[in-house]
Amino acid sequence: MVLFLTLLSLALMRINSFVHAQDSAEDFDPWTDFCRRFAHRTAVIDRRLYIDGGYVDYGGGVYPDTVNYTNSYLLYLDLEDIVDTFPVLYTNLSKPSEVPSVVGGTIWPDTVNKYLYLYGGEYNWTSTPPSRYTLWYYDVLYDTWDAKTGDSEILSPSFGAGVVTDDRAIAYYY
Length: 174
Description:
- This protein is mainly beta and 174 residues long.
- The chain has one domain (2-173).
- Helix content is 12%, strand content 38%.
- It contains 1 helix and 13 strands, in the order H-E-E-E-E-E-E-E-E-E-E-E-E-E.
- It has one helix at residues 2-22, and strands at residues 34-38, 41-45, 48-52, 55-58, 69-70, 74-83, 86-90, 106-110, 115-119, 134-139, 144-149, 162-165, 170-173.
- The strands form 4 sheets. A 4-stranded antiparallel beta sheet has the order 2-3-6-7, with no helix packed on it. The chain has a 4-stranded antiparallel beta sheet with strand order 8-9-10-11, with no helix packed on it.
């Protein structure tokens, strides 16, 4: 009887693990289901903290079998709208599927013209980097995306750190 219960328990754990592995990021809500986000890129324009890409873990905690999903959303926290000592997270911004959701990299904010420029980052195993470098940018005021493609076959850099000097409109990436 003990052997039967042990085998049944192991079989149920295996089935549960298989079912969990079949979940996709689309099965979860980025606002209510997330546990943690990491390796993303952020920028602030007009008291809004924008979050793009990186990994997200869903569920009530982080466990050995936790799946790190790629965050495919452009999110923002309104730093003026505080509820229970934390800014409200909004998930209603557009992000077409052709805009890459990468891990690492940086977002350079243009606080004058209200643009976010996405630079660098590493593609995950489910997506292929473009053959030519593409600089994606997002218009904060109109919730629209556009891109400029380079003439050379230079690929986007992977991990690094970026900073912008607003007063001189210069961005650096290391």
